[in-house]
Write a structure and sequence with these properties.
Length: 122
């Protein structure tokens, strides 16, 4: 059994590590993330909100790079992005806007247990 390291409560992504990525047999993780990149409308992403798994990635960041950092356990990068509000949970205002327009498109990547989303231009 692997040792679980303690993570600060504010670290959303502490359960991922480079060892985990290696143990999964991931070769070029960034290439895998790139090939896994999908698009979905808000309506299809709502179930992930209900389990508190949605993380919004700012348009200032590359979604593939962020997902790769999360999967590799690069906590310093993730924490910096969170501190700068480049990675956030959805706000009430955002949720209201998306509910008003359920066809809002998003790019997304799943890095268990999280679903990283980035709103696309219509």
């Amino acid at each position: 059994m692997r040792n679980q390291r303690k993570c600060p409560k504010s670290a959303l992504f502490c359960k991922f590590s480079k060892a985990d990525a290696t143990l999964r047999g991931v070769g070029d993780l960034r290439e895998k993330m790139k090939s896994d990149l999908e698009v979905a409308e808000w309506e299809l992403l709502k179930p992930h909100l209900e389990r508190d798994a949605l993380i919004i990635v700012s348009e200032e960041l590359d979604l593939v790079d962020v997902a790769t950092a999360v999967a590799e356990g690069r906590l310093k990068s993730v924490e910096q992005w969170m501190q700068k509000n480049l990675m956030t949970k959805p706000t009430a205002a955002q949720l209201h806007a998306w509910e008003q327009n359920p066809n809002t498109p998003f790019s997304f990547l799943i890095v268990q247990p999280w679903v990283l989303i980035q709103q696309r231009a219509n």
